[in-house]
Write a structure and sequence with these properties.
nine-stranded antiparallel β-sheet, mainly beta, eight-stranded mixed β-sheet, 35 strands, binds calcium ion, Jelly Rolls, 4 helices
C-alpha cells in the first residue's frame, strides 16, 4: 500500500511565498520568535546587494528545510489517520529518488498447498496476508498429523504443512466421516457417540465395512487390533479383502465390557501391492480403536484355517474361516465318495489335520460306488491295484452291473489305445470264482471273455477287458497272472 504525498506542489507554493517576501522593496531579516521562524523588517535603510544575496541564499535554505519538515509531518499524519491494519509490518522508503516517496508494503504468503490425501480451507485467509490462518483437513480414511492450522508468518510461509496418514489408526474420535474412513459395503455401521461406559465415538451396527487400500511390501504383514463390544449375538470376522488374516473370528454377545482382539493382515498373492481390511459382523456390535500395532504385538497369534474348497462335498459347520482346534466334518454328494478322513481339525498354523476329497463315482449300483483308476501305460500289478483302491477293489455282481461297468470303462480308454484291462478284486482259484470277501460266486458266460476262465493255477487275478468297439469279440472278465501289468483298477465303496 502506498500513501502518495504531493511534495512538489506544496514546495512550489512555499517557494513562491518566499520569493514575494525577498523581492519586496524593504530589507527583511529572519529571526526566531516563540520558537517560530519568522521575518523582521530592517528599518534603518536599504539592504546592500551583498546583503540581499546572502538573505536570498539563506531563505532558500530555510525553505528547503521547511518543505522537508512539512512533508515529514504530512507523512506522519497520513500514517496515523489511515488506520493501517496490523498486517503492515514495515514502511519501506523508495530510495530511488532523493525526493523520498514513502510506501507501505504488506507481507503475503504464497497460496497454501493441501497435504497429500487432504484439503486446505483458506476462507479465513482471503489475501494470504501475514497473520492470516488456514485450516488443513484430511480425506476420508486419513487422519491428520501435526497442527490443522497454518499461519502466514514473517518468513512468508505457512509453517509446517499437516500430513494425512492412512485409516489404519482410526479411533472414531477425530473423524467427522460417518464410518471413520471405512467404506460401508453393506449393513448399518456408523459412527455413534457414547457417554455410558466411556465418552467418545464408536462404530456401531452390523454388516461389512472396508478400509482404504493399505500398501504392503512383498512379505510384509500388518499387526492390528480392534476393540469389540457386542450389543447382540453374532460374530465378527476380520479379513483382508485381497489377502488373508489371522485369528480373525470373534463370537460376541450382548455385553457391557470391551474386549481388544489382535490379528495379522497379510497378502495371499505376492504380486498384490496392497490389502484392504474388511470387518464383517453378523450381529450388532460396537467397534473402536481399529489400530495398527507394532508387529511384535502379534507374535504367536494362531492362523485361522480357511474353508476347504471341496467339490461334491458339504462341510459342517460351514464358515469362511475356522479358529484353532475347531472341528469340521465332511460328507460327499450321493454320487461321489469321500477319500480320506471325514473329520478335520484346524491346526494353529492355519492348515487342516486331514485332506479329504470327494470323488465322483463312475457307476452307482445297489448303493455302491464304482470308479476306475486308469493309466495310459499298463504297469499296474494286482498288488498295486489293491493299494490304488485302498484295499477296496470291486466285484462284478451280475450282467446289468457288468454292462454299466463295461460302458463306463470304455469311456475311460486313453487316447492312442484301442482297449484297456483293469483289475477287479475278484479271484479265480481251483476253477472257482471268489468275491473280495472270499465267498464263492458265479457269473454268466456272457460276462466272461470268450474262452475264459482258464484253469491255470497262478492266474488268480480277475480283470475286465474293454475294447473301443462294442462288437469286438475278446471283451469281458478273464483270469490272468497277478504279476502282469494292467492299465489300472476298479474300486468299490459303500455310499
Ligand atoms: Ca472411540
Amino acid at each position: 500500500m502506498k500513501i502518495p504525498i504531493r511534495h512538489s506542489f506544496i514546495g512550489l507554493i512555499l517557494l513562491m511565498e518566499a520569493c514575494l517576501l525577498i523581492k519586496g522593496e524593504q530589507c527583511w531579516t529572519p529571526m526566531v520568535c516563540d520558537d517560530q521562524l519568522t521575518w523582521r523588517e530592517i528599518t534603518n535603510g536599504q539592504c546592500t546587494k551583498e546583503e540581499e544575496k546572502a538573505l536570498e541564499a539563506l531563505t532558500e535554505q530555510l525553505d528547503g528545510m521547511k518543505t522537508k519538515f512539512y512533508q515529514l509531518k504530512k507523512t506522519m499524519e497520513k500514517l496515523k489517520t489511515n488506520s493501517v491494519p496490523p498486517s503492515v509490518v514495515g514502511v519501506r522508503r523508495n530510495d530511488r529518488k532523493e525526493t523520498t516517496t514513502p510506501q507501505v508494503t504488506v507481507l503475503t504468503c504464497p497460496a497454501p498447498k493441501a497435504p497429500d490425501n487432504g484439503t486446505v480451507d483458506t476462507t479465513t485467509a482471503p489475501d494470504f496476508e501475514f497473520g492470516q490462518t488456514i485450516r488443513y483437513s484430511c480425506n476420508a480414511g486419513y487422519v491428520l498429523q501435526g497442527s490443522n492450522i497454518g499461519k502466514c508468518n514473517e518468513k512468508g510461509t505457512w509453517g509446517e504443512v499437516a500430513t494425512c496418514v492412512d485409516v489404519f489408526t482410526c479411533d472414531f474420535e477425530s473423524s467427522i466421516n460417518p464410518t471413520c474412513g471405512y467404506t460401508r459395503v453393506n449393513g448399518t455401521f456408523q459412527r455413534e457417540y457414547r457417554v455410558k461406559d466411556f465418552t467418545g465415538h464408536v462404530l456401531a451396527g452390523t454388516g461389512t465395512i472396508r478400509s482404504l487400500p493399505k500398501a504392503l511390501a512383498d512379505n510384509e504383514e500388518v499387526c492390528m487390533s480392534v476393540a469389540i463390544k457386542g450389543t447382540s449375538d453374532g460374530e465378527l470376522v476380520a479379513k483382508a479383502n485381497n489377502g488373508t488374516v489371522t485369528e480373525a473370528i470373534w463370537p460376541f454377545s450382548a455385553s457391557t465390557t470391551w474386549k481388544t482382539e489382535k490379528f495379522i493382515l497379510k497378502k495371499i498373492n505376492s504380486a498384490d501391492t496392497e490389502v484392504q481390511l474388511e470387518l464383517v459382523a453378523s450381529g450388532n456390535v460396537e467397534l473402536d480403536n481399529i489400530t495398527t500395532l507394532n508387529s511384535s504385538e502379534c507374535y504367536g497369534l494362531a492362523t485361522p484355517c480357511t474353508k476347504r474348497n471341496l467339490e461334491n462335498a458339504t462341510i459342517s459347520p460351514e464358515q469362511e474361516l475356522y479358529s484353532k482346534d475347531q472341528e469340521v466334518s465332511y460328507s460327499c454328494s450321493n454320487d461321489s465318495i469321500l477319500e480320506g478322513e471325514h473329520m478335520g481339525t484346524c491346526k494353529a498354523d492355519g492348515s487342516w489335520s486331514t485332506t479329504p476329497a470327494c470323488t465322483k463315482c463312475g457307476v452307482v449300483y445297489n448303493s455302491k460306488c464304482f470308479r476306475a483308476i486308469v493309466y495310459d501305460v499298463k504297469n499296474v500289478t494286482f498288488s498295486v491295484a489293491k493299494s490304488l483302491c485302498k484295499n477296496k477293489l470291486a466285484n462284478i455282481y451280475d450282467v446289468t452291473h457288468f454292462n454299466l461297468v463295461r460302458d463306463y470303462l470304455r469311456s475311460m480308454i486313453p487316447d492312442g489305445e484301442s482297449l484297456i484291462y483293469v483289475c477287479t478284486g475278484m479271484s479265480y482259484k481251483n476253477s472257482q470264482l471268489y468275491s473280495t470277501t472270499g465267498q464263492a460266486m458265479s457269473l454268466p458266460t456272457e460276462v466272461w471273455r470268450s474262452d475264459y476262465p482258464i484253469s491255470q493255477e497262478s492266474w488268480t487275478t480277475v480283470a475286465v477287458r474293454v475294447h473301443q468297439k462294442p462288437e469286438y469279440k475278446y471283451q469281458g472278465i478273464y483270469n490272468y497272472a497277478p504279476t502282469y501289468g494292467y492299465f489300472g483298477a476298479i474300486c468299490e465303496n459303500e455310499l
